[in-house]
Amino acid sequence: MTKPVERIMVYLDGSEGSILAMRLAVVLADFMGAELYALSIVNTRALSDLVQSHIFLEAEREEYRKELFDDGARYLNHAVEMGRKKNIFVKGVNVSGSIAMGIKEKVDELGIDLLVMGPPPRIRSRRDALFDELESAMRTVDCSVFIARNEERIEKLYREL
């Protein structure tokens, strides 16, 4: 019989919710015997919007992109370490592009069966809801999506692993 979940991916953005999702993904990978991937995305679409809005100069874009890439690398190193502490191998992936498309492309490319994400941020307006890239990713990926909630329970499961 084929395992229901062979590959899990967690999206990391440095938020507390994404760290909670990473802990849950480590627990699930152990329980299901699944491969675990951690994904960080440098949001180049947002960078372009900042340049077009004259918030950044073109020259500042590359410097900020590098800072974002370095932040992503730190998130991934932390994720790998979280897995290592529980004897789970985590493959870190750092890409550039829009968040929604980056998640969708990696899910397809890696054959991901389960995407684990932190709870979505509170929506402040209809416009925010319309343009929320994480929600768009959740709605369009071709795999099941698991939203990490109940911090106390997830922390307990992770500690007991």
Structure description:
With 161 residues, the protein is α/β, with parallel strands linked by helices. It has helices spanning 16-32, 44-52, 58-85, 99-110, 126-131, 133-140, 151-160, and strands spanning 7-11, 35-43, 90-97, 114-117, 144-147. It has a single domain, classed as 3-Layer(aba) Sandwich (Rossmann fold). It has a five-stranded parallel beta sheet, sandwiched between helices. β1, α1 and β2 form a beta-alpha-beta unit. The mean pLDDT is 87. It holds the Pfam family Usp. Residues 6-149 form the UspA domain. InterPro entries: Rossmann-like_a/b/a_fold, UspA.
Fold blueprint:
Elements (H helix, E strand, L loop, with lengths): L6 E5 L4 H17 L2 E9 H9 L5 H28 L4 E8 L1 H12 L3 E4 L8 H6 L1 H8 L3 E4 L3 H10 L1
Parallel strand pairs: 1-2, 1-4, 2-3, 4-5
Protein name: UspA domain-containing protein
Pfam families: Usp
Distance between the termini: 26 Å
**What radius of gyration results from the CA coordinates?**
16 Å
Tell me what portion of residues adopts beta-strand conformation: 15-25%
CATH superfamily: HUPs
User: What is the CATH class?
Assistant: Alpha Beta
Count of discrete domains = 1
Q: Averaged pLDDT, please? A: 87
Helix percentage:
55-70%
Number of helices in the DSSP assignment: 7
Derived from helix and strand composition plus strand pairing, the structural class reads alpha/beta
What does the main sheet amount to?
5 strands, parallel
CATH architecture: 3-Layer(aba) Sandwich
Q: What shape does the CA trace take?
A: globular
Order of helices and strands: EHEHHEHEHHEH
